[in-house]
């Protein structure tokens, strides 16, 4: 068997890859957890976030401060490209997005929706917040489309607001510093964080309000409407020490997020599809393609954890 | 099929390329040389005089990269530092005094920056490479490097029009030819340990006679890109392809028995094979496996296997780094374990044949060549 170490891809190959990725992501139990896993892998690998590599080693003393903006930047690294690599020149969507030079195709976002999200940097004039267009895979504006542009549907604009899973309310952040967990259980600090939020000693139920964390008084595991969540997200992102603004990504975070995303052993996106899309975007849709872009961004372990063979 | 596997046509294209020039290497060697040049950035072509080391280096460069991206450096005896190659700033003359390769290196660093350059160092071991080609040796400690920075001087900006560095990229290759004899020593371990050593054999009589075609090679009028240009890029590209297909375990599986043989007989507990060696082996194999598969599909080879790819990798990356004692211990068991008729078996047979007749088993890989 030979592998396409380098290969020529066509726009229709990209369409097929995007379609398969969307199908796989749509079928995941929690697509947002999967997207978070991909982006945290990229961030920790590129030093955009600090990882605590192993429970057997002491935690780093300091940690990078990162948030949603960093996740969006990571998405741009993965799937940002020249507009001409994805949209036909002068297409309705290109015009509707005010002709950006570069766009981001977020194949993970809104997976339950049939439309794919294309994002530009900055709002689309005259709107103040809308910076994205949503279009179906068979929209005539795509570079792979053979449909006459005359039949293009109206352009649907939206505000791009991707995964918000880093918070404490209903995300993976936890206020308990790594130093405190280490002091509580020097032999197994991981066990401290493995305790579900409602059983955490710092979890405080508040009558008529969302539960709060005794350490920082922020909502923890709450619905935002004065009720607590029956099922909370794992605690995977913590400050290295009390008072730190940055957060560590705990050992096993990617595995935990992937497990959460694929409950019931659902399949992850195919590695070759992710690789094709990442490299197509990186090369702006021209020239020879290879898999080095995705493996460079996610690393060998990341590829093994975050993709399926077929 | 919309995704075209470009490697499928590469072995045939290389064979045609060689034929047009009247050059003869057996098919397994052709595939092996291609995999070496695609999967490594620092190659040493070794073998006795007349085995075609310089020809192999040049033909690979021609097949993979355009002429303007080639640079040939003829190494000279008694070079002791990088300045002997690229010159240096003279505080006395207050100007940059160029070396034999300064202009060509700067030309390579300033044009066609989307195409990998190839530097060929002829008779590379006439002087110690670690002395005169230090930047190459240092940079080659990585499995892959996008740029090779060759420092020229450290004068303040504006004191000379010569830039402070020659920056070669993307994914530059350095091909050295090495002829180990009484006038030139084998490369130092720090050099051979970072190189892909390509061992060439003297041609058969038929091949030597066929090579008379090379007296009148076909005129090369094609102005397009060289036939092998497409895959000539990041040496890890093929490995990445296998990685995203979750198919990399096969390389370790094929290598393991051979490495165990080396470890068992060369001396367990010693640093016989470093992680870097293994990384280089699998990056090479990720090219060799599909190339050999393409050669089989095209009828150029009768069969191939991951084991043969692993054997070739061992020959290029592990054996040249063994000490004389280790080499003496492992050569016989490796020969027994090697695929009959394969490249490893053939090369080991040649390496041991001369020494056994005259002096017992040859003392090490490099001494076996002299």
Distance between the termini of chain B: 51 Å
Across the major sheet of chain B, the strand order is 3-6-9-2-10
Largest sheet of chain B: 5 strands, parallel
Major protein interface: A-B, 30 and 31 residues
What does this protein look like?
- The complex is a heterodimer of chains A (310) and B (370).
- Chain A is built from nine helices and twelve strands.
- With 310 residues, chain A is of the alpha+beta class.
- In chain A, the strands form four sheets. In chain A, strands 3-4-5-6-7 form a five-stranded antiparallel β-sheet. In chain A, strands 2-11-10 form a three-stranded mixed β-sheet, covered by helices on one side. In chain A, strands 1-12 form a two-stranded antiparallel sheet.
- Chain A is globular, with a radius of gyration of 21 Å.
- The model of chain A has no long low-confidence stretch (mean pLDDT 94).
- Chain B has 370 residues and is an alpha/beta fold.
- Chain B has helices at residues 10-20, 27-39, 53-64, 83-86, 102-110, 129-132, 134-139, 189-192, 205-210, 237-244, 249-266, 275-297, 306-317, 324-337, 343-358, 365-369; strands spanning 4-5, 42-46, 70-74, 87-90, 95-98, 118-122, 148-151, 165-168, 173-178, 196-199.
- Chain B is globular, with a radius of gyration of 21 Å.
- The relative contact order of chain B is 0.16.
- The interface between A and B is medium-sized, with 30 and 31 residues.
């Amino acid at each position: 068997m030979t592998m396409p170490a380098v290969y020529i891809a066509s726009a229709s190959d990209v369409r097929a890859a995007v379609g398969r990725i969307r199908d796989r992501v749509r079928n995941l139990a929690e697509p947002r957890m999967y997207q978070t896993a991909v982006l945290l892998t990229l961030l920790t690998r590129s030093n955009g976030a600090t990882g605590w590599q192993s429970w057997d080693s002491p935690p780093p003393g300091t940690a990078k401060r990162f948030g949603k903006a960093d996740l969006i930047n990571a998405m741009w690294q993965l799937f940002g490209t020249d507009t001409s690599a994805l949209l036909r020149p002068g297409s309705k969507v290109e015009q509707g997005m005010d002709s950006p030079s570069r766009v981001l195709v977020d194949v993970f976002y809104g997976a339950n929706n049939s439309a794919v999200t294309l994002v530009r940097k900055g709002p689309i004039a005259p709107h103040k917040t809308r910076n994205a267009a949503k279009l179906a895979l068979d929209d005539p504006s795509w570079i792979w489309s053979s449909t006459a542009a005359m039949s293009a549907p109206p352009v649907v604009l939206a505000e791009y607001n991707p995964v918000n899973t880093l918070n404490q309310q209903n995300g993976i952040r936890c206020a308990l510093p790594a130093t405190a967990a280490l002091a509580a259980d020097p032999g197994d600090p991981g066990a401290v964080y493995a305790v579900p939020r409602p059983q955490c000693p710092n979890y405080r139920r508040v009558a008529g309000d969302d539960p709060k964390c005794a350490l920082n008084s922020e909502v923890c595991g709450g619905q935002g409407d004065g009720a607590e969540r029956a099922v909370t997200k794992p605690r995977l992102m913590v400050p290295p020490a009390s008072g730190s603004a940055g957060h560590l990504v705990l050992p096993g975070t990617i595995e935990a997020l992937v497990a959460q995303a694929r409950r019931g052993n659902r399949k992850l996106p195919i590695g070759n599809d992710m690789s094709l899309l990442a490299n197509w975007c990186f090369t702006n849709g021209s020239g020879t393609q290879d898999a080095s872009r995705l493996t460079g961004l996610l690393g060998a372990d990341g590829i093994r954890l975050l993709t399926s063979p077929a | 099929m919309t995704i075209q596997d470009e490697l499928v046509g590469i072995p045939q294209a290389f064979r045609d390329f060689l034929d047009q020039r009247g050059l003869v290497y057996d098919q397994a060697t052709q595939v092996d040389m291609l995999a070496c040049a695609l999967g490594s950035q620092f190659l040493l072509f070794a073998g006795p005089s007349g085995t075609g080391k310089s020809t192999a280096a040049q033909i690979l460069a021609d097949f993979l990269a355009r002429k303007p991206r080639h640079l040939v450096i003829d190494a000279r005896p008694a070079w002791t530092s990088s300045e002997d190659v690229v010159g240096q700033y003279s505080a006395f003359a207050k100007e940059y005094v160029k070396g034999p390769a300064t202009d060509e290196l700067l030309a390579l660093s300033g044009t066609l920056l989307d195409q990998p350059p190839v530097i060929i160092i002829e008779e590379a071991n006439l002087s110690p490479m670690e002395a005169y080609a230090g930047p190459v040796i240092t940079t080659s400690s990585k499995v892959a490097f996008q740029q090779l920075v060759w420092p020229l001087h450290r004068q303040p900006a504006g004191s000379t029009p010569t830039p402070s560095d020659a920056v070669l990229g993307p994914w530059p290759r350095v091909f050295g030819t090495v002829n180990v004899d009484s006038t030139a020593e084998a490369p130092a371990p720090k050099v051979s340990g970072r190189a892909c050593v390509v061992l060439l054999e003297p041609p058969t009589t038929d091949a030597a006679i066929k090579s008379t075609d090379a007296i009148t090679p076909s005129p090369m009028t094609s102005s397009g890109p060289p036939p092998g240009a497409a895959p000539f890029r990041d040496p890890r590209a093929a490995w990445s392809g296998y990685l995203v297909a979750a198919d990399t375990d096969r390389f370790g599986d094929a290598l393991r028995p051979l490495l165990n043989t080396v470890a068992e007989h060369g001396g367990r507990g010693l640093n016989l094979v470093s992680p870097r060696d293994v990384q280089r082996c699998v990056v090479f194999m990720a090219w060799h496996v599909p190339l050999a598969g393409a050669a089989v599909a095209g009828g150029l080879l009768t069969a191939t296997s991951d084991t043969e790819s692993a054997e070739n990798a061992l020959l290029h990356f592990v054996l040249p780094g063994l000490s004389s004692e280790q080499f003496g211990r492992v050569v016989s068991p490796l020969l027994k374990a090697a695929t009959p008729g394969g490249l490893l078996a053939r090369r080991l047979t040649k390496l041991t044949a001369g020494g056994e007749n005259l002096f017992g088993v040859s003392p090490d890989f490099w001494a076996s060549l002299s």
